[in-house]
Each structure stands twice: as C-alpha cells, then as structure tokens.
Amino acid sequence: MDIKKYLQKKKETVDLALEKYFPNMPDSTGEGVLPTSLHKAIRYSLFAGGKRIRPILSMASFEAVGGEGDGILPFACALEMIHTYSLIHDDLPALDNDDYRRGQPTCHKVFGEAIGILAGDALLTEAFKLMTNQSIQGLFSPSHDRGWVLDVIHEIAQAAGMSGMVGGQVIDIESEGKEVGLPTLQYIHTHKTGAMIRVSVWAGAKLGGADEKTLKAFIRYGERIGLAFQIADDILNVEGKASRLGKKTGSDLSRGKATYPSLFGMEESKRRAKELVELAVTAIDSFGPEAEPLREIGWFILSREY
C-alpha cells in the first residue's frame, strides 16, 4: 500500500472532524468567537500541519479489528487535542523554550505565554468534554455499553497524566544535564511519548470491539511503536534537517537531555529502533490485510524525516 497516501487521506478526515469541533466562526463584529485570542491560539496550534499519527493509529486499529462508522472520530480528535496541548506547553520557556514548531513560531511566541498556557489548558479540557459527550454513544453498536466508553476515557486520562505523559515529562526535566542509565531513559520515553501512542492503538481496538487476546497483541504493538517513535525523534534531533523538521536541531544535546544517541550512539540507536518496529509488526502477525496500515505506519515511523 501507499502509506503516504493513506496517511494524507486519514489526516484530511481528522482535520475535517476537528474543524467541526473548533470552527472558525466570526461573531457579529467579524472578530471571532469570544474569547477571540484563545480561539485563535487554539486553531493556530491545532491546524499547524501535524502528522496526526496518534488519531490515525486509533483509526487504523479501530478498522483493523472490524470497527465501522464514525464512532472513533471523537476519540481520534481528542487524542490530537491532548497531543497539541502537550506541544504548546512543552515549547514554553519553563520547559523546552522552543521558538519554532512545525516551521512556524510557537504558540507562546505569537500569543504570549499566558494565552499559550491557557490554550493548552483549554485543549486538554475540551478533549475530555468531547469524549464524554452523550451524543457519541449512538455512534457505536449496542454491544458497546457506557462502561466501554468510560474504560477508554479512563485509559486515555491515565496515559496523559501523572502515570504517563506528564510523569515522563517531569523525569525528562529532572534528568537534564545528568548522567542517567537505561531504566531512567526508558521510563522517560515510554511515558512522555510512548504512553499516548500505546493508548491510541489500544483505544481504537477497544472501541472497534476487540477481544482481550486481540487487545494484548495491539498493546504490544503500541508499546514497541511508541518507543521506536521517540528513538526516531532522538535521532532526528541530531541528524535531521531543520527545514524538514520545522524546528531547530541539536536542542537535545545543548540542553543535556537523556536520549538514546547520547547513551548508545547513533548506530546502536538506529538498530534498536529498527528492532522495535520489527517486534511491533510481529505482534500483529496473526492479522491479515486489515492490519496492513499499522504495519506500514511502523516502517514510516522508522524512516520519516520530520
């Protein structure tokens, strides 16, 4: 399959759905919905050209296990909203202090730190508002009771919070400029980045009606893809081109961040990333062509340049 065409098509689907949740509607003065600055900041970051990997993984998993219809879309959009909030906050001076993201000035550079913080807060809150909207209950088959949806929301919250992304971010900050071993590095990567990727895969499969055996296979895939994704990011921060990445390279080294290249070197990091993708693909070997997008996404993560 042509993975680039697949990713582009799915990205367009996600973008159209996000437009429904964050429409660019003017008010009577033509200035936009109040508070105008907040809406502008959210749209600026949300539609800045992201790859939409997390929502696409959820959609691919949903379809791989036989899920049908648009029931996955609110959750796919919520995953992207949570991811975007994390990027806005990650770029702030108190954290990574980045001036550019996806080839344009970061949110706080355009709208100020206060609005940047609040835009991230709003995106996180709106994500859970979207997932708990009672109207989405009718998008699933009768076999999906309210408990299923609550399970998914609970797992996404856990992956985004202290036990997942936020917890990984804290250890990442506290490890800057220090010598850390593999256990600490793996904790950072599997929590800061890996947790949201894993839960994206799991949520799609769960909402698609997967049984426990299938869910375990998809979790193994998600865990390995999540770690491979962050190792690839580490490598790109060293070898990538700023023009392709849309942000400066070499920032990990300058900040003394714990990364795979700093601990193992480039060649070993590339070998480990490749091995993780191979193991991820192996985890879903028992599935047929319906899981081909997941396999191809794994190889795309390994070979991407941005």
Give the helices and strands, then pairings:
Elements: H1 3-21, H2 36-46, H3 53-64, H4 73-90, E1 100-101, E2 104-105, H5 107-111, H6 113-131, H7 146-160, H8 165-174, H9 182-192, H10 194-207, H11 212-239, H12 242-245, H13 251-255, H14 260-264, H15 266-283, H16 292-303
Antiparallel strand pairs: 1-2
Helix pairs in contact: 1-3, 1-4, 2-6, 3-4, 3-10, 3-16, 4-6, 4-10, 7-10, 8-9, 10-11, 11-15, 11-16, 15-16
Description:
The chain has 306 residues and is an all-alpha fold. It is built from 16 helices and 2 strands. Strands 1-2 form a two-stranded antiparallel sheet.
Strands ordered across the widest β-sheet: 1-2
CATH architecture classification name: Orthogonal Bundle
CATH class: Mainly Alpha
List the uncertain runs.
none
Q: Please write the string of helix (H) and strand (E) elements.
A: HHHHEEHHHHHHHHHHHH
Structural class: mainly alpha
Q: Main beta sheet: strand number and arrangement? A: 2 strands, antiparallel
Helical fraction equals 55-70%
Strand content: under 5%
CATH topology heading: Farnesyl Diphosphate Synthase
Number of strands: 2
- In total, the number of domains comes to 1
Q: Determine the mean pLDDT.
A: 89
Distance N to C terminus: 21 Å
